[in-house]
Structure formats: C-alpha cells, structure tokens
Design goal:
Number of domains: 4
Radius of gyration: 24 Å
Order of helices and strands: EHHEHHEHEEHHEHEHHHHHEHEEHEHEHE
Helix content: 25-40%
Number of strands: 13
Largest sheet: 5 strands, mixed
Number of helices: 17
Strand order of the largest sheet: 4-5-1-6-7
Length: about 400
Amino acid sequence: MVVCVYLPRFELSVAVGDRSSARQALGGRTLAVAPLTGAEQRVGEVSGTAEAFGVLRGMALGEALARCPELVLVPADPVRVAEAWEAALRALESIGAAVEPAGAGVAYFETDGLRALHGGDAAVIAAARHALDRPARMGAGSTRFCALAAALAVRSRRALVLDGMQAGRWLAGRPIALLGFREQTAALVAPLSRLGVRTLGELERLGRPALSDRFGVAGTLAHRLARGEDSPLQPRRLEECLEESMEVGDASSGTALRRVLGVLVNRLLARAERRGRTLRAVTLSAQLLAGGGWRERVVFRQALGDPERIWLALSVRLQALPAPAGALGLSVERFGPPASDQGALFDRDPARPAVRAVRMREAVAQIRAVAGRDAALRAVCVDPDSRVPERRVVLTPIPE
C-alpha cells in the first residue's frame, strides 16, 4: 500500500515563519508568496482567504492584486523551504520508509516493508505522523495517485485509506484538478475543463484512444490515472550532505561576492568527507538582505574537482541574484567518481570494451543528474516481426 503525506500550503507557511504565527496568519489574512525580483511576475502559494477572492497559485501578480487589493505578499524563501522539506523527508526516512518526494509538501512511501516493524498499516501511518513536526494530511491507496486523492480529501488528522473496488468507485467522483499535481498531466486540466469534463469518471468514459489521439502521451497517462493505475514508486537516493555557508557582510554583490564564492568552493573541496570525489551537481543559495532567499541547482557538464573550473561555472550564476545577498551557501547534491580515476597516458587501444563501458556509465550518470532518472533509455527488441512500428522496439531505463 502506498501512503501520501501532504503538507498543505507548505511553502507559504515556511515563508511566513514559525508554526504558531503561520496558523494565525493563514487563518484570516489574504496572503500569497511574492514572485522573486526579475522572475516571471506570478504569485506562489496563497492562503485560503485569498482563494476565496479568486486568487490562485500561478496567477499574474497584476490580476491577483486586482481581484484582492488587500492581498499581502510574503517574500519567497526557497532556501528555507528546501531546508524544511529536507528535514521533513529525513523525518519520514527515520521510521524506515523509502520516500519518493514529489515537490515541496507532497511525498510518497510504501508500507509493505514496514508492517512487521511497526505492526500494520495504521501503525505505520501513525509513526509517520509522529515523526513529522508539523500537521499533515495522509491518505493511503493501491497507487500513488489514489493515495494523493485520499490525502487531499481528508480534513482531519485521521487518514483516509482506499483499497480494492472502493478506490475505483471513489476516484470516479473526484475532480480532474487532481491531474494538476502530476507534471505530465498538469497542462490537461484547463482544456478538459473547457470541454466540460469535471470528474475523473467522466474522463475515463471518454476512452483511452480518444484521449491519446487528442493529447498524446499525456492523455494516455491521464486515462490510466483516472482508472487508478500508476507506475511504481521511485524512492530517492540518499546522498551525503556537504554544505558550506558564509556571511558576506559588505560583499553583497560584485567582485567581492565572487571572492566569497571562491572561499566556499575551497572549503567544500577541502572537507575530509569528500574523500577525493568529484562534484557532479551542486546547489548555490543566498539569503537576501531585503528578505527571502534564492537558490539554484547547477549541474556541471562533467564531474569536476578543480576549484577554478567550479568557481568559473558558479560565478556566472551569481548574475541571476534578484537582490543583494547577506549570506551565501554552497552544498553538494551529487558526487562523481574520484578525481584519481584517470585513463593511462599511453593507451594503445583506448576504444577497448572495458574503457567504453566505463565511459558509458559516466555519461549515463551525468545525463541523469541533468534531466532525471528516465533521461537515459535503451532500446529493447520485443516483436521485430510486428507490422506496428511501436511494437517492435520499446524503451526501458538503463540499469544503474
């Protein structure tokens, strides 16, 4: 069984501050996360009172203020959101769960391997609720989509558990807005609403061929989700967390800020925990003097261990800072192979199979760091004699 943990308005509550003031502020004020300076002027998460005025997440700032002139904008703080979300994920992993995060505020895990440890599905859900330090809505179902629908439907601390035929009948009456929580199907919500489709049951009755013909792969996936079908969970890989931060003082921008970045790079590479490994992906973050924060994920073209090349790649990203920074941070998101793993100086046969295999594994790892786990696929012949081209060869992930 899959359990969905949903923390409502997570980004807004973290941006507001501590939990007591957040509950008070979210209860009766029209709040919205302000867009970052220089970014697309669209509001982030909004409070329930703001939604009553018709303000929705992703709405243009001008339209949001026109609908609700009393709207209070809270500075966005992606740095604190990332830290709080990482703490929540580690709290769930502390009970033994293999967690798949699906954006800040939504995570999934399976209970199959935890029943013997905690004593049943209800005990696993109770342990997960106890491990979190903030209120959460939880739902359980046979797939992650059923679990998400259950978690969004509950309004109390009691989890909603869907199983068997009950899940299919219950899911048919849910709104198609649930498709907006999946990146691949989020763009279908608006056109389906214009076509008069309101529930997942109505979407299922349209049929898979019609949806596939009109919306392509996204339509096929939407039909599978409406039927209660979904792909298996993909828990995140645990990586060591190495990070360095530094108050910049008067070096809030310009050349001095790049020097501070150079100090952070040297400190990070000098950490004993690195054990000579190269860096494949890092996260550059900053606390802004005007309030809020900024962070950006940087994936190098190849795994690097040279401080000068790392500094050159990161210093360009400092130009994207929306405002002067009060503190700068650098953390490792993904490690590469040790820097000592180099080819021979004189190699008579550099294209031998062993060398090609090593280079291929490194290329696949780098591609996955840039574009995700499903970015590197291989072609497998299934039915070479079929008259349908799509049935001859299928694409499957390359094993790690």
